[in-house]
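Q: Convert this sequence to structure tokens.
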Amino acid sequence: MKINIRINGTRYTTLESLHEIDDSQVVDFLREWYNAEEYVIGHTSGSTGAPKEIRLLKKDMLASARITNDFFHIGADSRLLLCLSPRYIAGKMMIVRTLLSGADLRTVKVSSSPLKDTDGEFDLMAMVPMQVETSLSTPETAQRFTRVKQVIIGGAAISVRMEKQLQTVPTACYCTYGMTETVSHVALRDINGKSKSPFYFALGDVHFETDERGCLVIRAPHLQQQRFVTNDIARLIDDTRFEWLGRHDNVINSGGIKLFPERIEAKIALFVEQRFFIMPEEDARLGQRAVLVIEGRAWDEEQKKQLLEQLRQELHPYEIPKKIYFREHFMETYSGKIIRKLI
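A:
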């Protein structure tokens, strides 16, 4: 069968020629892409349970790639960098964007510091926050990061600290909003630059509304399903822009007041360097109370007291964690999302 894709500067025109490619996951995806089925197999992130197998229509993937390529001006002269596994939607879509545009795809080994293994100028790269953090941590890879024109960051929340770091780099950085079911992102948020904003904006003809829970509903006319109900609580600015408030699954009802852990965490991030999360704990009087779980060895009482004093200056009394727990290591999904369990 004839194919047409450029990888690491070499054009491949037959399936048989793919054996020359070092990355077996890329080869496996391309063989699946060019088979007779109308779909490829994907897996959900596993952020709310075990990852589930899902069939992704190839025509939906092409439609999603088209609106991304249009927004980022990706064409035959572009260079893309693949540093995520093609077993998951973010990696698959970088390959599809390459197939659709005729761009040159550079592949590197999937790691926490992918720029350590490559150099050069790129028009678009997709990363998870851990890869961004690691890349910015050394002068060599931080310099290489600046040679990427545009970076889309997804799979997990971006910390306040990282967002501040990204204000100093010339690379245009975007948070992505989407899920495996919507075949990659349907909205972006400008992290830095003149357009920096707390609001996500729709791509293509995507529109938004909210349901009776206050959760986002996605209208995506470029996809076969077209309507997706999420568990993300959002504040609509208009039908193409929204502010993400947090996951409905994570909301804490404390004495009748709804607390959004993700918003509390953004404030706490100014004072805690380790990874952490806010979660509910049963309370006889309030029903639920917010508690803080920090990754690493337990602090002494003086350290905990100092942190709580700082938090009292930043948080509403209901938001202040009623207890602090410590866990040596957090469980996380493939994409780096923390699994919020006190285990």
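The longest helix spans residues 58-72.
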